[in-house]
Amino acid sequence: MEAELAADGLVRLIAFDLGSAPLNNAGGQIPIDGKAVFCEIDSTRRAAVTVQDQGGLVDLNRASLNVLATLVGRTAASASDGLSLAEALADFRDSDSIRFGVTKGGPEDSLIVDGPGMKNAPFQSVDEIEQVIPPTMTDLARLKQMVTVYSRQDGIDPDVAPVELKAILGLDPDGERVAIPFAVSQHRTFAIDVEVTVGDGSKFRRLAMVSILRDPVRPFAILEWRQGSGPIATAAGDSLSRSCETFRYAQARSTSFN
């Protein structure tokens, strides 16, 4: 309970900071590209935190088939499955019952997995990927970290994209770029992931999706609120010497993201 309350409180404090910061300085230097940071709440409690601007992720409902195929192909058990699995995702989100691709015109029902057939409507959650692609065919956990349903943009903002996604799409200096447009994030929606460890070793992980309203009375709204599992990241090489409060408020005075 102690760890849960601390995690919930830290999520809300970070969301408050994001909602209170100027639009061109959302979060100050608090990383908003999914990079894990570590801090101490007090002498007996510490936290691992990631904040991901959804504008830096690939929108499942807007991404091109080429981008989906590249992403899925890099996370699939067999790279050759990338295109067929991407086509299944595209068939799930479209509004008709006609399959395209290699078997154009065939039925969509049970295209990849057994079930009621394709939704023929936009993805409402990244978890709906599980209705299309079985876990034996791809690393679903890894894939979900790079996609969203909240950016509502055809492209991504590379300034807030995770390192792994930039590498896959060739947005790093050494990569060959996949055809995807750039879109400057409006910093409207963030995923906040907090894991708190208390003195006796107990841990609690809270994941929240927050919409930034930038209203003085209500600076943010929580869209999703769930309990997480597993560690966010290892703290190797991090001294954990920073105070979570000092980190939040000292960093928020910066005028850049980096």
Structural notes for this entry:
The structure is a single chain. The protein is of the alpha+beta class. The protein folds into two domains: 2-57 and 184-251, Pantoate--beta-alanine Ligase, Chain: A,domain 2, CATH 3.30.1300; 64-141, Orthogonal Bundle (Ribonucleotide Reductase Protein R1, domain 1). The protein is built from six helices and seven strands. The strands form two sheets. A five-stranded antiparallel sheet has the order 1-2-5-6-7, with helices on one face. Strand 1 (37-40) and strand 2 (46-53) form a beta hairpin. The radius of gyration is 19 Å and the shape is globular. The two termini are 35 Å apart.
Give me the secondary-structure topology.
Blueprint (H helix, E strand, L loop, with lengths): L1 H19 L16 E4 L5 E8 L4 E2 L5 H11 L6 H12 L46 H5 L2 E2 L14 H6 L20 E9 L5 E10 L7 E8 L16 H8 L7
Parallel strand pairs: 3-4
Antiparallel strand pairs: 1-2, 2-5, 5-6, 6-7
Helix pairs in contact: 2-3
Tell me the span between the first and last alpha carbons. Answer: 35 Å
CATH superfamily of the largest domain: GSPII I/J protein-like
Oligomer description: single chain
Top-tier CATH class of the largest domain? Alpha Beta
List how many beta strands DSSP finds: 7
Low-confidence stretches: 235-240, 250-258
Kindly give the count of domains.
2
In short:
With about 260 residues, the chain is α+β, with helices and mostly antiparallel strands. It has helices spanning about 1-20, 65-75, 80-95, 140-145, 165-170, 245-250; strands spanning about 35-40, 45-55, 60, 145-150, 190-195, 205-210, 220-225.
